[in-house]
Amino acid sequence: xxxxxxxxxxxxxxxxxxxxxxxxxxxxxxxxxxxxxxxxxxxxxxxxxxxxxxxxxxxxxxxxxxxxxxxxxxxxxxxxxxxxxxxxxxxxxxxxxxxxxxxxxxxxxxxxxxxxxxxxxxxxxxxxxxxxxxxxxxxxxxxxxxxxxxxxxxxxxxxxxxxxxxxxxxxxxxxxxxxxxxxxxxxxxxxxxxxxxxxxxxxxxxxxxxxxxxxxxxxxxxxxxxxxxxxxxxxxxxxxxxxxxxxxxxxxxxxxxxxxxxxxxxxxxxxxxxxxxxxxxxxxxxxxxxxxxxxxxxxxxxxxxxxxxxxxxxxxxxxxxxxxxxxxxxxxxxxxxxxxxxxxxxxxxxxxxxxxxxxxxxxxxxxxxxxxxxxxxxxxxxxxxxxxxxxxxxxxxxxxxxxxxxxxxxxxxxxxxxxxxxxxxxxxxxxxxxxxxxxxxxxxxxxxxxxxxxxxxxxxxxxxxxxxxxxxxxxxxxxxxxxxxxxxxxxxxxxxxxxxxxxxxxxxxxxxxxxxxxxxxxxxxxxxxxxxxxxxxxxxxxxxxxxxxxxxxxxxxxxxxxxxxxxxxxxxxxxxxxxxxxxxxxxxxxxxxxxxxxxxxxxxxxxxxxxxxxxxxxxxxxxxxxxxxxxxxxxxxxxxxxxxxxxxxx
Length: 650
Description:
Shape: elongated
Helix content: 25-40%
CATH class of the largest domain: Alpha Beta
Structural class: alpha/beta
Largest sheet: 6 strands, mixed
Number of domains: 6
CATH superfamily of the largest domain: Domain of unknown function (DUF4445)
Distance between the termini: 63 Å
Number of helices: 18
Strand order of the largest sheet: 14-13-12-15-17-16
Radius of gyration: 29 Å
């Protein structure tokens, strides 16, 4: 580059290279760090040398010392070009950051471009005749950051005098959407926090992020306190509509829980809930309405019309969230009456609308939501699965917490049981019984237990216990129903054996049938017989064993390499929207574009549903499952059949 006497920061901006400078290039923040490379670089056909820039003056040396910067680092706003240069921008000084989500061999790059920006200003002491502090701040924002028309939130304005005094004229501003100053702090502050929350019917998950770097700082979760008022969304609609003050009670319960999750997450990183300045919420349509304090009554009957379907922007204060007084809240849009903002989050995370292949995404939860399609056409529907997969309404069901059975293996030849318990690194066969401490069974363990009972022949395709099977593990459980002992009394922390009963199996059958029928409904509408890829998502999506999910018929029969589990994609989508304002606009567009498919006539749906109750299905072929079961029950014979080509039809 020819000598021009412009700063490295200005040159970088001209070339489209983003360098962090929250002081707007005033030389006070110390964020715009660069390293001047030394040597000849044939690739660029130039020779770079530290002498090709102006030397650091006393002011630059002082700010570097004050901010504790390492030797050899220059501030790009105070370094002026005098010759050819090759400049390295350290990662911590890069403005156009990206974070990468890695899962299932797929990488998703998320550009970090939040609604929040930080600005560092230094105001000289006011002189007689000067404009107000408010006006001087706004003038500096316009001149240094090209931000005209910015306004103060009243709470932020009230804190301005104290911040100026405590910071000796140096203040940090938190600005929302380049429009509103929502917080004023003394001195330099550069760690604005944001919270992304997935409001599930049974559980809540919150993700605390650094809005400047995009880093995920902490994750917290808890049971949804609304469960006290009803296990499923229909019971909560009834409570909200029929019980005096019911809606307000449900609203307060979930808002209090979100506030608590935010405080817990912030405490993990040495911060407080007051440091949370932006928040994104997702949830199914009923959770969405109750979090916003909206009447969910219309969602309880045809035509299931929501009060609000588009994106909602509000304040934490207005919702009652105990975050920073100026914190903003964004709620992703709904797709339809029963396909909510959580499903929009799944789309943002998995991006089926940007792919050529046909993708089936099954978001497993109390209210299961299903997507099918690609960039040409995307369909959605919902399936009321109930809370079985989240451990509710199961005899010994519990959330995924220490002491919960999360993995189950049953030897088809001996009926010996081997379980994996959360909090234990080893399987039960390698742990003394008295040290196992089993307290119950969570969603992934419930699914695997049913699959293993079926593979072992303990339960029939109908789901009923086979009366011909005799084993000390098969006992009479509560209400005189057959049951299977997953953990013995010696292995239990409760003093009683942990059972899976006939009723529990039935609950899983009802849940998996609802999901399967929903997927078949979308495939019929889309005109395809199978998907190119099947994605399992949900609160325990990363824990779902894809083989056993297919064995019970929860998802269509597919080659296992085409089935992946991605965890809480709705929560990931909320985090993406928190970190990138452009993805919020994309969410609004894709929510309108996605087609909602309603359930068929009751008689047709009932016929499909009854057939789907069987393990894996009463009539649909499941060749991959047939092979998996054969390999487990009769491994020698299965190998011979493979050699004969018996499974070639799959």
